[in-house]
Amino acid sequence: MSKFTVIDHPLIQHKLTMIRDQKAGTKDFREIANEIAGLMVYEITRDLPLEDVEIQTPMGPTVQKRLAGKKLAVIPILRAGLGMVDGVLQLIPAAKVGHVGMYRDEVTLKPHEYFVKLPSDIDQRELFIVDPMLATGGSANMAIDALKKRGATNMRLVVLVAAPEGVKAVQDAHPDVDIFAASLDEKLTENGYIFPGLGDAGDRLFGTK
Q1: C-alpha distance from residue 132 to each of 14, 82, 146, 162, 185 (Å)
Q2: Which of 82, 138, 175, 192 matches a 20 to 30 Å C-alpha distance to 169?
Q3: pTM over 0.70
């Protein structure tokens, strides 16, 4: 079974509380969601491999460390996942960005794929799949299915808030994909929203209803 990790850094928890508040406007929600995503990926990438490299400082030659050529990509699940991309790219500006479009049927709560556009070397990259919410797990599972179908093998799912039901659904379907969240929330409501959650993250990010 995959690992599920709550990243409980105090700054992440503080900022998450700020955007849970219904008084947080679109500008604040968007900015803080990206900040949280950056902080989370900073923690998640602690195991990236390093290699020695010889450089010249103003004082002379030295051997130092750099990332060992690891290819990374950020894959937002549209549309709400877009609200986490810039935060990741601020730390890893060379990462490629792919997109997986999903929408949820408001009656059945089932996801439907409508768009997939990925880097051509997706099979050679470590992927960070980003989405603010892991609710039922349906969209995440379909996005992971879409990526695997196109050759991806190395993926991590990064979310702001997760429901226990969604975590179980992804772990059952994809035991090879580790999940990272800023919070494990209490439950899903009858209409499939996470409680206490964030509300509709897409609407809050983009100012729509």
Answers
A1: 16, 9, 19, 8, 13
A2: 82
A3: yes
